[in-house]
């Protein structure tokens, strides 16, 4: 995951997490969605709270932003990169839906 990459596939994220890579996971869905299902170790930071809670996202080391299908996380990525100059943030392509489909069939879907 270089600082130039904007997206990571569910398979690549899974491989990196299994390898023990130090990746901060930021979930920008709503609390109700997060409570239903989320990747272990994720920090819930709903998209509408991002501007006031951006300090909770580390500035060094890879950060993967997660949502349901990858749309809200893409908005978060854009905000973090363009407004705050964060180059260490990456979008999970397809969100938790793609994670369930391609990595963990037991992961809850909605």
From TrEMBL:
InterPro entries: GlpE_sulfurtransferase (IPR050229), Rhodanese-like_dom (IPR001763), Rhodanese-like_dom_sf (IPR036873). SUPFAM superfamilies: Rhodanese/Cell cycle control phosphatase. Coiled coil: none annotated. Pfam families: Rhodanese (PF00581). Residues 19-108 form the Rhodanese domain. It comes from the Bacteria. This is Rhodanese-like domain-containing protein.
